[in-house]
Design brief:
Rossmann fold, binds NADPH dihydro-nicotinamide-adenine-dinucleotide phosphate, 284 residues, 12 strands
Length: 284
């Protein structure tokens, strides 16, 4: 006889499509580093099955799940509780269970802010340009606004999505906002402190870069690209050429996963082990 526990704690990732998402690599590295009997399961969930999949979290007594494209907005209607900032962002990327109830959080923007803090970047009073108005742009814009930036310009091709984000910023914060329709090459205003590429331009296998006038980059500007694959994008290459301080998408990916990890496991994430695992995965 043995009193060993043969049951592992379960965490999911619900998306569709989801096969190419590498988050399992960093999460499994974290469990191994802390010697935890947890499993992170990348799960293909079709939109019409999302309701059932969320119910399954309770039925399987899971710790929670990451939520990715295209479920981040839709999932909100199936959850018992939603954190205030996830409500402001209008999307959830992390669900955890407590006392049998589901809680929705959004750790994307928080992970981005931690990356800047790790780089000793002070964002209070800064002027920001965000390229894109999708889910990630929403999370980053709201968190930057809540953390005291002075102004945010949203640049996007799709006007209604861009205006929806600026109106959200006006509703939930005092940040000065402006929407710029991205129908021609965008020139970065000279007083910009921080530029964020939150579009999917440059995501593998795309090798293009956002349509901006790269001559308007100045070495005083901090340039971030949230594309995680490849971490060094053509956009960041241009920023480095212009002498700018840059941040890549790896740090945001790790930091958002680390916050989610703590919500699920209750312990600080072993960030160094996670970073090394991701680097090894992409170096191969
Ligand atoms: P969405 O699909 O919600 O948004 C995509 C955005 O990219 C939209 O604003 C879209 O503009 C814009 N876009 C797409 N193609 C172009 C183009 N050719 N020119 C100009 N704009 C374009 O995606 P997400 O916000 O969820 O993700 C965006 C990127 O961020 C992805 O590459 C994703 O991998 C990355 N990401 C990284 C994370 C990290 O931790 N590092 C976390 C989350 C996301 P329009 O509205 O006009 O179509």
């Amino acid at each position: 006889m043995s009193d060993r526990c043969y049951r592992s704690e379960l965490i999911g990732l619900f998306g569709y499509p989801v096969d190419e998402n590498p988050t399992v690599v960093i999460m499994e590295a974290a469990f191994k580093a802390l010697n935890l009997d947890y499993r992170y399961n990348t799960t293909s969930v079709k939109p019409e099955d999302l309701d059932t999949a969320v119910k399954a979290l309770k039925a399987f007594n899971m710790k929670g799940t990451h939520i990715t494209v295209p479920h981040k907005i839709e999932v909100m209607k199936y959850l018992d509780h939603i954190a205030d900032d996830a409500q402001m962002i209008g999307a959830v990327n992390t669900v955890y269970l407590k006392d049998g109830e589901t809680y929705g959080e959004n750790t994307d923007g928080k992970g981005f802010i931690i990356s800047l803090k790790e780089g000793n970047i002070d964002i209070i009073g800064k002027h920001v340009v965000i390229l894109g108005a999708g889910g990630a742009a929403h999370a980053i814009a709201i968190e930057l606004a809540l953390h005291g930036v002075e102004s945010i310009i949203i640049v996007n091709r799709n006007e209604s999505k861009g205006r929806e984000l600026t109106s959200r910023l006006n509703t939930y914060s005092k940040v000065k906002t402006e929407f710029v329709l991205w129908d021609k090459i965008f020139s970065i205003p000279s007083d910009t402190d921080l530029i964020v590429n939150a579009t999917s331009v440059g995501l593998y296998p795309d090798k293009s870069k956002p349509s901006i006038d790269y001559n308007t980059l100045d070495k005083s500007m901090i340039v971030c690209d949230i594309i995680p694959n490849p971490p060094q994008t053509p956009f960041l290459d241009e920023a480095i050429k212009a002498g700018c301080h840059t941040f890549d998408g790896f740090s945001m990916l790790i930091n958002q996963a680390a916050i989610s990890f703590k919500l699920w496991v209750g312990e600080d994430a072993p960030i160094q082990a996670m970073r090394e695992a991701l680097k090894k995965e992409f170096d191969n």
